[in-house]
Amino acid sequence: MNRKLLQAGIMLFLISCAPQSQADRMTLGTVQSSIHTGMTGGEIQEALGAPNIISKNNDGNEIWTYDRVSKESTSRGFLFWSSEESTQRTLTVLITFDGGGRVADYSYHSTEF
After folding, report:
1. Alpha-helix runs per DSSP H in 18-107
2. What is the pTM of this model?
3. How far apart are CA 27 and CA 34, in angstroms?
């Protein structure tokens, strides 16, 4: 029993130490500096990770949608007083590919509240 518990603890530790995936690191700055027309799907996945949704427009061209939400919380306290502030950010990226599999157009929308 103790050996299984130790193994589970080691696995949890190793998972928590694993590097973040590209998708976890996707930021507005990454999108603005990394994405441009003419890129291939492989290059997009290398920069942003796998898309959340793949669909097709009326012309039959693929559209990849990336949708990320992050929330940051900060707690402050002193003696009997405490407060918590939180910020939520969203980032939606739409990438349209041409018939040859290259980026024809892209757009993004970012919010913070």
Report:
1. 28-34, 41-48
2. 0.69
3. 10
